[in-house]
Design brief:
It comes from Mycobacterium bourgelatii. InterPro entries: Transpos_ISL3, Transposase_DDE. The chain has 342 residues and is an alpha/beta fold. The protein contains 17 helices and five strands. A five-stranded mixed beta sheet has the order 3-2-1-4-5, with helices on both faces.
Amino acid sequence: MWRQDTSKAAEPRAKLSRRALRWALEALVCQHLTVARLAEALAVSWNTANNAVLAEGHRDPTRFDGVAVIGVDEHVWRHTRRGDKYVTVIIDLTPVRDGTGPARLLDMIEGRSKKSFADWLAQRPQDWRDGVDVVAMDGFSGFKTATAEELPEAATVMDPFHVVRLAGNALDECRRRVQLDTCGHRGRKTDPLYACRRTLHTGADLLTDRQKARLAALFAVDTHAEVEATWQMYQRTVAAYREPDRKKGRTMMAALITTLSTGVPRPLQELITLGRTLTKRAADVLAYFDRPGTSNGPTEAINGRLEHLRGSALGFRNLSHYIARSLLETGGFRPQLLGPRQ
């Protein structure tokens, strides 16, 4: 009987050779081809190509090594009327903080509750949990509670991305309310408030002369005073994060939180709500200035890449498949694939 060792060419019982699998991974991760296109190029069935790449998506046991900073956020993995459409994504922000590379997807879990995140943390080894220094998150209290229970020594940071978005949402809500009160209808192209909706979100230091003149004309109207007051608080929020001196930026943010927590006129309901939120999470908001590189902005960027993945696949119905494909797409495989061939 004649036998030949083919383990160097392919895994035992594999349907694709190592070289074919590597080509498929490079095409999928680096060139963003679909599985259907891979199957056509390799002359195999869709299931054969899909099963091969999904197996690689879960075959990286070292992805949890060296993690010190994580970001957590919710993500919509499917748009359906039935079934849970939310997942929680956990991002490794350690390379961003250390300046060694981009953020990467660490894991994805079903649901977006405190229990989901707490259970995931509880499943990690104790030495891994002890190594996590910072957890960046949005304003959802469930993530903070889970972190406090499972990672009591880790610092929780409410990152600038979500703080600025909270201030921006308050500005938009105030603008819409004043628009309805003064015009009696939603914003139209010819309405001054609607025409300035994007200019209002531009940082004061980035405004052109034309934009400054437009805002000056807008705020000259007495009925727009509430919008101006909310805009000023928004600009103070942005200015605190743009301040190069972190100590000074922290002082500016602390002063802003104090201003919003006391003495806000009752008609400015949007600022009252914003002040209540920032006061409740003041320690987490201010913690960012002591821990640079802990923004959840990279987490939102990865969410955007996952949206593109779902669009190219025309949607997913199987969450396990989606998690595996997401790990391949944003889990740090690209540097490995673009490195020297073995």
